[in-house]
Amino acid sequence: MEPPTQLDDLTGKTLVERYHIHGRLGQGGMGAMYTAHDDILDRDVAIKTVPRNNLNDVELVRFHREGKAASTVRHPNVIQMLDFGVLETGQPFIVMELIKGVSISQLLKEQGPQPALFTLQILEQIAEGMSAVHKSGIVHRDLKTSNIMIVNLETTPLVRILDFGIAKSIAGEEQTSTVTRAGQIFGSPNYMSPQQIRGESLDQRADVYSLGCIAFEMLTGRTMFEGETVMELVTKHLNEPAPRLWEVGDQSYPMELERLVAHMVAKSTGERFASMDVVIENIRDVRTVLEERLEQERLAEKVSANKQATDEELRKRNRLSAQLLFSGALVAVGLSIAVMNGFVHPMLKKEQEIVKVAPAKIENIRRKERLDRSQSTLAFLELGDQTAGDMGVLMDQSGDSTLALNNALKSGGKKDHIILLNSKVTLEDASKIVLLNPTKLNLRRCVGVNDAFLQEVSKAKAIQMIDLDLCKGISPKGFRYLSSLPRLTTLFVRGCDLTDAHLKEIGQTSSLLQLFMERNHQVTLKGVERLGGKVLPVKIVVDQPNLYLLSAEKQKALLLRHNVQLYRSDNVTAESFSLSNMMDLAGIGDMPPPSDKKVSDFADEVDLSKLGSKRAKNYRGGFDDD
What we know:
This protein is of the alpha/beta class and 626 residues long. It folds into 4 domains: 1-98, Phosphorylase Kinase, domain 1, CATH 3.30.200; 101-316, Orthogonal Bundle (Transferase(Phosphotransferase), domain 1), CATH 1.10.510; 363-484; 489-626, no CATH class. It is built from 21 helices and 19 strands. The protein has helices at residues 57-70, 104-111, 116-135, 194-197, 204-220, 230-239, 245-248, 255-264, 276-340, 362-374, 388-391, 401-411, 427-436, 451-457, 476-482, 500-506, 525-529, 545-548, 552-562, 579-583, 613-618, and strands at residues 14-15, 19-28, 31-38, 43-49, 81-86, 92-97, 102-103, 138-139, 148-151, 158-161, 168-169, 392-393, 417-419, 440-442, 465-467, 490-492, 514-516, 538-542, 564-568. The strands form 4 sheets. The protein has an 8-stranded parallel sheet with strand order 12-13-14-15-16-17-18-19. Strand 2 and strand 3 form a beta hairpin. Helix 13 runs parallel beside helix 14. The protein is elongated and about 105 Å long. It starts with 13 loop residues before the first strand and ends in an 8-residue tail after the last helix.
């Protein structure tokens, strides 16, 4: 492979009797960058030289034409091209305004991944500048983090797009391959679209891909693909699916952000955003969602802080009341002593009316304490005025389940709610649960919940809801037993190490309406499809990116073919998935979609008149349309 041409250092020289070169800023395979002084206009400028062997005669003519076009672009986010020409050595050069700032590459090197909202602010400015460039008929072809400068970083960040040294006219002649001439690549491998790598005719979607690569790097601190050689890098851009942010970054990312980047770096131009204007629109939508979410979090923190202040004030008052009560007690003791000694004033001898105060119900107080301590999302369904004894079995997180169940059986009657948090349960306990025949059963983090335990529990035919969160070691066979429960509508199985084989058995539960299965990262779309096929839609809450990042087309197919709706856990509110709604079969279709921003319109393609009003409303929920 022929190495890139090394340019002579032009420092100290004067170009075309006008530009006095002060020094070299940097050099790469595509040219060198210098600081210089324009002796005619008496201003400092930046000059880039391009190696002559990178351009044939036809491309040299095109360089002139595109330089002229680029010099007409006027936009605050695009560095202004002031002049261009060819040196006596045959080297093309470009004169640009000189700016002071920090490149995105330097920013990432110094600070690492950037916050989402700041990243979106920068991306929007880049897209706005590139939109102006594209409307001038030019494709940049070399957008990368080192070509994006940020001015006034600490105050009002302003993006300036640099370096049009390898720009191509959108309507120009057929473009030559970017990888074949002398083994060189015209562009930067970390940011090149598959179409550019293959040397295909390019349009603005090539720059959209590069912008997506910049977005990925800003959010994760790493390039989208890594490789030891250029060929390894370009092969990955050509053939490997783009990773999701969460696969590379050290944090989770909002679904809206994942989708935005995924659409920018789609391999196929047909799946990529069609223009920078479309990119801008989507960036603004995502910014709005994230800003609203952040504002809600701030308000929640403010409410929490106010509540803490109020609680502290109440504690102070209670302490004061206690002190006064103690003082009153001392007075009472003194009076008692005085009475015994006959020194009480006659007015104090008058009989006073004594009001008897009914004692508080101990069971209600204990019930509240236990519910407060459990911190369970299932603590629990419209308690109303029921006492703990009426409600079921409540336990602390280290409770003795056997003793509690025995006491419940002794008290007699059916128990609607049984909550055994962090308990060790036995097969004997399962038999007691069957005798109590609850409608809601919480076994979260319980040790001893296995196939045999669930086989016994499945005899309690009144069960409508079971929480098995973080119960490990249940095989698909265990869920096969639960499928025999005729009224089971809601199942919590978060963090249970589920596979598609488990979902196949869960799908046999004909009455199932709600499934919460976050933190089970072995499940796939194929397994989810097996959960459907029922009369009413099955609503499934997920946090697996391979599920919540499904395309709109696949979401539509999942609903129409399998009657399954996916919700991301971030978008599920207490109101939209309230437990009272879960148990109210008549109102199950009234659940709002997980996001109030956009909903897909594919319901229009379904004959809703054949579904009934309740079920038809479900078809209007679901994910945002991509």
